[in-house]
Specification:
Shape: flat
Helix content: over 70%
Largest sheet: none
Structural class: mainly alpha
Number of strands: 0
Distance between the termini: 84 Å
Length: about 160
Amino acid sequence: MSVRKGVVIALFVSLVLNGVLLGLYAGHRLMGEERHAMHGMAKQLLKDEPKELAEPMRQVLEMHRKDMARAYRKLRSAKRDMVDILKQDSATEVDIKSGFKAIRIADNNLKQVSHEVLATVLATLPPEQRLKFALRELGRMQKKPPRPDSPDRNGERPPR
C-alpha cells in the first residue's frame, strides 16, 4: 500500500469519526435538557424503591415517556415565549398575562400527564407500598421550609 493511499484512508476515517462525534454532540444539545428532565423525574420516583418494584415502575414510565416529553416541551416552549414577550419594548399587560396563562396551562398539562403516569405506576403496587410511597412523597413536600413571602395558613401575608 502506498503512502498516498494510507493518507486517503486515514483522512476518510477521520472524517467519518468527526461526523459521528458532531452528530452525537448535536443530538445531545437538542435533546439533552428534555432527557435529563425525564431521567430526573424517573430517578426521583424510583430512588427509594426496592429492585422488584422499581423495574415495573420503570417500564410504565418508559411507556409514557413520549407523553411526558411532549408536555415538558410545551412547558419549555411557553417559558421561551414568555421571555420573548418580556424582551419586547411594546409588551402590554395583556401580552404578559397571556404569556403567564400559557405557562400555567402547559405546567398544569405536565402535572396532569405526570399524575396519570403516577396513577398507573401506583396501581401496580401493593397497598402497603402505595401508602409507603405516598407518605414518603408527602413527607418530602412537607419538609420544604415555607417561603418568607408566602401567605400563612390564614391566607394573610406576614407584616413587613
